[in-house]
Write a structure and sequence with these properties.
about 350 residues, alpha/beta, Rossmann fold, seven-stranded mixed sheet, 13 helices, about 50% helix, globular, binds S-adenosylmethionine
Length: about 350
């Protein structure tokens, strides 16, 4: 994490509306997810789980508050509190770890596959910014309709279980050098773009390189954590219909949408850094917080030669641990029939 990223995080943390919403989300969603995904869920005492989850989140928020205005103190604090720290701190209670590990290797991927099925194509498939590689592995074993399955990431943090099973390449789409990553018919990029850079130019460059790696007519499915300003929702009937439906079953999503543009951006910064560095346990990731609004992303895709075919607002997806304001874009490589280099 760069010093500017730590400063940005502390600015977001100082925004009381964003901070209070993220605290409510983490305590509520984590407790709900433990009670749903624990392998012996029926034996758990719900009140006890809710209390302990609240205590866990209170530790995070109090510790961060104590460092005040000292960005340099943030990275070592996150390392110490991370679930990935060896030894793992004791406040990560046993039921949390059991439920999260079970979820990460099973239910998370089931939920993801159900979301993806209506969009998935065929041919050669790649997951760009595949992280632990679990999605590639799961699609290979449970979907099986692609000809090949490749995970690509700038860092290799695959688990041992995945390592043997999938093709994997270390490749940086923000600085493509050397071998091209191949020509894919279908690619996914889930929760990656906001880790790539904060400027429009850096994102367009990354997306243009991803576009290059697609076959003519190939598709890219992007899932992003997105700002949904009230004026952009009000101007689009499809967005309005989707949001109206979602807030009936996601009460905290309604609270997120009621925040203004900057407060939503702050909430996304807090969710992103806390989820990845603490719960997922990878504090060394880059956090440029390149969050954009739903229409700003559409503009950037267009500038990168990717035409959108579908935009689906999923919000705080029920059944998942780390919920954020998810939107899925199905994009097609512009210029069908034109041979690419
Ligand atoms: C939040 S993680 C998401 C991982 C995975 N897609 C998932 O949904 O669990 C973001 C991933 O993007 C990768 N990434 C960031 N910049 C990248 C780049 N320039 N090229 C390739 N991967 C990149 C990071 O290393 C990280 O694994």
């Amino acid at each position: 994490m760069r010093p500017t990223e730590a400063e940005q995080f502390l600015t977001a943390f100082a925004d009381s509306k964003a901070r209070m919403l993220v605290f409510r989300m983490m305590t509520g969603h984590y407790a709900e997810a433990i009670l749903e995904h624990h392998p012996r869920a029926a034996s758990l005492d719900p009140d006890n789980i809710r209390d302990r989850t609240r205590q866990l989140c209170t530790v995070f928020f109090n510790e961060i508050e104590r460092i005040g205005d000292q960005p340099a103190a943030l990275p070592p604090l996150l390392h110490r509190m991370s679930r990935g720290h060896d030894p793992r701190p004791e406040f990560w209670f046993r039921e949390f770890n059991e439920a999260y590990d079970h979820y990460r290797h099973h239910r998370k991927l089931e939920v993801k596959l159900n979301q993806l099925i209506p969009f998935l194509g065929e041919g050669d498939y790649a997951d760009i910014g595949c992280g632990g590689g679990d999605l590639v592995c799961y699609l290979k074993e449970h979907h099986g309709k692609f000809r090949s399955y490749t995970g690509i990431d700038v860092m290799d943090w695959r688990s041992e279980a995945v390592r043997e099973k999938i093709d994997f390449r270390v490749f940086n789409f923000a600085k493509p050098e050397g071998i091209r990553p191949g020509k894919f018919h279908f690619a996914t990029s889930m929760a990656v773009l906001h880790h790539v850079g904060s400027t429009d130019a850096s994102l367009v460059y990354f997306l243009s390189n991803v576009r290059e790696s697609l076959h003519p007519g190939g598709r890219l499915l992007v899932e992003e954590d997105v700002i949904l300003p009230q004026e952009e929702i009000a101007a689009d009937r499809h967005y309005q219909d989707q949001v109206k439906h979602l807030i009936q079953e996601q009460p905290l999503y309604a609270a997120y949408l009621a925040l203004d543009r900057q407060q939503q951006q702050h909430a996304l910064v807090l969710i992103d850094l806390l989820a990845n560095s603490l719960t997922v346990g990878v504090p060394d990731m880059d956090f440029p917080f390149g969050f954009r609004s739903i229409n700003q992303w559409s503009d950037l895709f267009h500038k990168s030669g990717l035409v959108h075919e579908k935009i689906q607002i999923n919000g705080f997806v029920k059944g998942t641990f780390n919920r954020s304001s998810h939107v899925v874009y199905l994009l097609k490589k512009d210029g069908d029939g034109v041979a690419s280099s």
